[in-house]
Hints:
alpha/beta, Aspartate Aminotransferase, domain 2, 13 helices, binds pyridoxal-5'-phosphate, pyruvate
Amino acid sequence: MNVASRPNDIQAVIEADRAHVWHHLSQHKQYESVDPKIYVEGKGTRVWDATGKEYLDAVAGAVWTVNVGYGRTSIADAVRDQLVKLNYFAGAAGNVPAALFAEKLIEKMPGMTRVYYSNSGSEANEKVFKMVRQIAHRKHNGGKYKILYRDRDYHGTTLGTLAAAGQKERREQYGPMPEGFVEVPHCLEYRSQWGDVEDYGIRAANAIEDVILREGPETIGLLCLEPVTAGGGVITPPKGYWERVQEICRKYDVLLHIDEVVCGMGRTGKWFGYQHYGIEPDFVTMAKGVASGYAAISCTVTTEKVFELFKDDPTDPMSYFRDISTFGGCTSGPAAALENMRIIEDEGLLENTLKMGERLMNNLRELQSRHQVIGDVRGLGLFCGAELVMDRATKEPAPEKMVQAVTADCLAQGVIIGATNRSVPGLNNTLCMSPPLIINSAEIDQITGAIDKALTKVFG
Ligand code: PLP
């Protein structure tokens, strides 16, 4: 399969890429000495590169996206059928798959009623920020305009979402940033700000309240959080955290925005990460797993209460949400998303995620018992991380080069795993796994088997 699927002259493809493609997140000097990696085919949990080498993809397309796996002809068919019927119409008009997918999605999200379509996670989050700013103007006389974000969280690459990045290195050299974004502390218990305490989760949530009181509750409109911090270190929330966060938001009339761009659509074993904690957000955004990378689609989902704030106001011609996303009118996105959702339901992928996630966590804990370098393992469903440290007592982070040596060795063994936060000293030390949700036990064991060998090779 791999050889037949290779383009006739793969070297010509590589040269075209080297000459003209500006790769994401890449320092291009490396391509002077090594060929850029080009993947040519995928099936299930596996991908093949241009040399014909096969890999088990434990990160679902590098950035946690291909939830239902590669080579899904039923999604391709659904998209093709829709494209030949009507590929696109934008603006104030609707289309059939957009309406049907919105209805299906809302069924999975009690309390939510409205879906706003765009194309990327950044854009979906930016829409929330704009809605909050407009609500500030319309309802709070300019107050409640500030947006709280959390240390180590990430929400995208636009200037607005960068201003809300808890990974500060992402902002470097891109300032000045938009105003009105304020950071709250992280909730990584392994690196507790208060030492070894019983009530870490409550303290971490109360630290948000402290920021609200310091800034003035009348200035705070939104709290934006990831359910599990993804690229910032696979940080699962500590006990009691979310419940207290919800109380604080209600107490100070702060809208709660859950960024499910990574965790949404089954990644954690429920449709959405926040649904593990029984909380009721005002906004939920999602992107990656919504169509598993078969089409570009993101959604900003909210409640009728928020939607009502934008309804016709005869005294204000500016009262509606004056925003558009050109390709929010592509029908391929919701057509793919509908079939993607059917697959997750019909193939029991939420159940598989919980089962396989448990196996992955157990395997990682077993590795931790043998490899001193694994300081902490964290995870929810099929989103798991192993934090590497040079010394368990001081928790000195493993250097970036050594973490990269581990991922490189896994790659050489035919397993693609990730590592978080590459360019920051001390924050690049968590191995990251988020395979397609169809993964089986043998493949989970293959992932941890590769990590086992790589750790022995790199750290002894
Ligand atoms: N939110 C989170 C939690 C993410 O991890 C990402 C991307 O990795 C984004 C938002 C941005 O999504 P996109 O790259 O589609 O703009």
